[in-house]
Amino acid sequence: MSGSRAAVRYAKAILSFALEQSKEVEVNNDMLVVVTTIEESKELQLVLNSPVLKSDLKKAALKEVFSSKVSGLTIGLIDLLVENKRLAILTDVAKKYTIIFDELKGIEVAKVTTAVPLTDALNTQVLAKVKEITGKEATIENIVNPDIIGGFILRIGDVQYDASISNKLQVLKRQFEN
Predict the structure, then answer these.
(1) Cys-Cys with 164: which of 93, 106, 148, 172 at CB 3.0–4.6 Å?
(2) Any residues with CB less than 8 A from the CB of 136 and at least 6 apart, and which?
(3) Cβ–Cβ < 8 Å for 130, 152
(4) Per-block mean pLDDT, blocks of 10 residues, the chain (178 long)
(5) Residues pairing with 162 in the sheet
(6) Are 61 and 120 in contact (CB under 8 A)?
(7) Coil, strand or helix: which one is 14?
């Protein structure tokens, strides 16, 4: 829990610093790159979470991976996390940054759970519907869950619309039981 609070603090600090320099969009793109790169690389995760490796080696590995992909502000964040012995929360900081950035820009995150991955055409339709419902821009996070059989579950903030086949089957089951 304290790691989560620390991640929020670092994310707010880097956002504030990026806003002062009008580079918040660039840093947001960097944070997305950091999250996807670390989550897609098991080796990088092992390096970051290893208690045996010295922080200097971890820092060198991260700079090697990210030096050509991200801005100086993001490299500065990595340096700061190494200096404060908080490198383990780098992914959390990057995720929190994008959440705070989206809130700042008024962008909603719509979580769409489907049985199969969304196609580009469906993705566009969902974005248009979310904008119509909320009046805000949105990004789509597609969660694939074959257990819903078909249909979809749309969650925007605290509102959830369940149009899945499994939900309809549950409703029918309850009706038959009554």
Answers:
(1) 148
(2) 106, 107, 108, 130
(3) no
(4) 81 95 94 93 89 90 90 93 91 93 87 91 87 84 91 87 90 91
(5) 153
(6) no
(7) helix
Q: Are 101 and 28 in contact (CB under 8 A)?
A: yes
Residue with tokens 């055409």: 121
Contacts of 20 (CB under 8 A, 6+ apart): none
Task: Quote the CA–CA distance of 31 and 29 in Å, as a whole number.
Answer: 5
Domains in the chain, ordered, with CATH? 2-103 (1.10.520.20), 107-177 (no CATH)
Q: Report residue 156 CA to chain centroid gap.
A: 15
- The whole-angstrom separation of Cα 148 and Cα 151 is 7
* Single pTM value for the model: 0.72
Burial 107-144 (b: 16+ CB within 10 A, else e): ebbbebbbbeebeeebeeebbeebeeeeeeebebebee
